[in-house]
Specification:
- There is one protein chain.
- The protein is mostly helical.
- It has five helices and no strands.
- Helix content is 60%, strand content 0%.
- It starts with a helix and ends with a helix.
- About 10% of the residues have low confidence.
């Protein structure tokens, strides 16, 4: 059994849909339908979002699926600061900042396109009215 099968087993155990998993981790749709094993970068993403999952179990299939000791927190998805399972390296921080800028740029493009669509709808309605008035 590979890591993908273990992730599916974990999701089934926790009652988490693939859709929720993809949304929470940011992994692409169909990720769980490809291959058997995953890279360390994907493991980090998954363990960050599901910190109660035993990473040794995920990678090698050894030990319990769920960690015996899990840090308590005031928020269910928040991990205690001293138990943070994933720290961004300097290079990753740069990549995150670049991705944030890219997201902002895309959001601005989407907003501009929505305005264009609304303008085009207004033009179409105006042309329809002119056409109906001429007949």
């Amino acid at each position: 059994m590979g890591a993908i099968q273990r992730i599916l087993e974990y999701l089934d155990y926790k009652g988490i849909s693939k859709y929720k998993f993809y949304k929470k981790t940011g992994l692409s749709n169909g990720f769980l339908d490809k291959g058997e094993n995953i890279g360390s970068d994907k493991c980090e993403l998954i363990i960050y979002q599901y910190p109660d999952m035993n990473i040794e179990w995920l990678i090698m299939g050894k030990g319990p699926m769920i960690k015996k000791e899990y840090p308590s927190s005031s928020y269910p998805n928040e991990v205690a600061e001293d138990m943070q399972p994933y720290k961004l390296s300097k290079d990753n921080k740069k990549e995150v900042n670049i991705l944030r800028e890219l997201i902002t740029s895309h959001q601005q493009t989407i907003h501009a396109l929505k305005e264009t669509v609304e303008s085009q709808k207004t033009t179409i309605d105006s042309l329809k009215n002119q056409s109906s008035n001429q007949t």
